[in-house]
Amino acid sequence: MRVGNFVTSLSIKKNALSWTIFHIVLGVLGTLSKFIVIFWFYWILLDSSYYFFKTSKSKRPIFIATLIVYTCSFELLGRLVSASPFIPYELGKYLFLFLCLVGLFINRNHKFNEVNFVNILAIILIIPSFFIDLSGTVSFKDIVFNIFGLINICIGILFFSTIKVRLIQLVNWIKPLAFLCITILIYTFIKTPDLDEIEFALGANFQTTGNFGSNQVSTVLGLGAFLFGIGLILKFRITGYFLLDVFFFFGFLVQGLLTFSRGGMIGTILGLFVFLYYLYQLPAWQRYKLNLGNPIKFILPVIFILTISFFVTNYLTQGNLLLRYMGETAGTLAGTKDKDLNQITTNRFDIFKGDMELYAENPIFGVGAAASKYLRPTHTGMVAHVELSRMIAEHGAFSFGILLALLLVLYINVSKTKNIIAKGLLVSFAILAFYTTFHAATRTFMSPMLLALSMVSLISENKYKVKL
């Protein structure tokens, strides 16, 4: 590793253990001083700026993409250590948008294709909502929090769809995405008090999330578990060592389950099983060439670790974890409340219905960007957890065009991807991203990032001869 090369060195195999140790230490030091995290963030930006101008123009798009993959995780880490304003609270939205625009400028000579056309159409359909505010109270902060996530999804897809990579590069992006997840895991683990001191109720637990939003922390811990699960399945060593990867996979699962925020963990399982579905379709001779062997050998260990993690965590929480995932609350157990869909989804269903009522009243143009939380008949003032309902309420009929465009570009890209492993990765990234918008909207970098990654074009190469 040398100056002007930090981000690119994250994916190099021989550096895996060194970077793992570094990010563990960063998590430990982050509990002592936020300025350690702030310093590392700005050092990466300075180092990357130097490398950007030093490297050849042909390599800059891949470098920008790698920088996006790594730095956007600073968003949640900065929130955890209270680094604002040095690391802005909405850093992920600002940085992602800026870097994608830089990438688009670099790749401005890229041949215009059907994915670009459909995606630009989606961006055009977003624009009318900026000129509508039926509440009369929307601020710029509201706009950033609500609409920038959707804009970033479209701009991210636009940039990443101009990038062509080999399968090994797509897999290698797992490392820079996972390393800061390790830092967040270590930080939340150290900040978690002795479990005997925690009274596990049947709601989200802030004591196991570094005293920050359990939904957001659970989402990123779930991402970490998903990435390490993918690594174990593909025999791709994120840390460089099998047992250490197993340890982190287990650690992400347990810490994520301890948050009692279900969305992140369910997303992990969903993403892994989607990937396993595609991998299972590989013929035996192709698995042999990739050194994957019998699918049972990589399916059973992952299922075993998932199961053990749940039972261990359920034991540590005196059985409350199972009740939480069954949708029970103190009210339902006492018989004072019915266990309906709204109880199970922690009021998300009521917010969803409120958004649908707004859409019914304003079916063409919607209520305007970020206005739904002020006009919703129920849970007024609360930001929607479900991006789909927020989008429908605020964009009206245009929202269906936006959604259709996003699904269409995904279908186009996956259809032209021939490598089954690559196809499995792209689809699992997209499924995890879409699922996340149903429990955490676009509060974190995760949905724009994963949807953007699912849009890269895979370079055709000799079938199944890539060694991961």
TrEMBL record:
<keyword id="KW-0812">Transmembrane</keyword>
<dbReference type="GO" id="GO:0016020">
    <property type="term" value="C:membrane"/>
</dbReference>
<feature type="transmembrane region" description="Helical">
    <location>
        <begin position="118"/>
        <end position="137"/>
    </location>
</feature>
<feature type="domain" description="O-antigen ligase-related">
    <location>
        <begin position="249"/>
        <end position="398"/>
    </location>
</feature>
<feature type="transmembrane region" description="Helical">
    <location>
        <begin position="20"/>
        <end position="42"/>
    </location>
</feature>
<feature type="transmembrane region" description="Helical">
    <location>
        <begin position="241"/>
        <end position="258"/>
    </location>
</feature>
<dbReference type="InterPro" id="IPR007016">
    <property type="entry name" value="O-antigen_ligase-rel_domated"/>
</dbReference>
<feature type="transmembrane region" description="Helical">
    <location>
        <begin position="396"/>
        <end position="413"/>
    </location>
</feature>
<feature type="transmembrane region" description="Helical">
    <location>
        <begin position="420"/>
        <end position="438"/>
    </location>
</feature>
<feature type="transmembrane region" description="Helical">
    <location>
        <begin position="170"/>
        <end position="190"/>
    </location>
</feature>
<protein>
    <recommendedName>
        <fullName>O-antigen ligase-related domain-containing protein</fullName>
    </recommendedName>
</protein>
<feature type="transmembrane region" description="Helical">
    <location>
        <begin position="87"/>
        <end position="106"/>
    </location>
</feature>
<feature type="transmembrane region" description="Helical">
    <location>
        <begin position="216"/>
        <end position="234"/>
    </location>
</feature>
<keyword id="KW-0472">Membrane</keyword>
<dbReference type="Pfam" id="PF04932">
    <property type="entry name" value="Wzy_C"/>
</dbReference>
<feature type="transmembrane region" description="Helical">
    <location>
        <begin position="292"/>
        <end position="316"/>
    </location>
</feature>
<feature type="transmembrane region" description="Helical">
    <location>
        <begin position="143"/>
        <end position="163"/>
    </location>
</feature>
<keyword id="KW-1133">Transmembrane helix</keyword>
<feature type="transmembrane region" description="Helical">
    <location>
        <begin position="264"/>
        <end position="280"/>
    </location>
</feature>
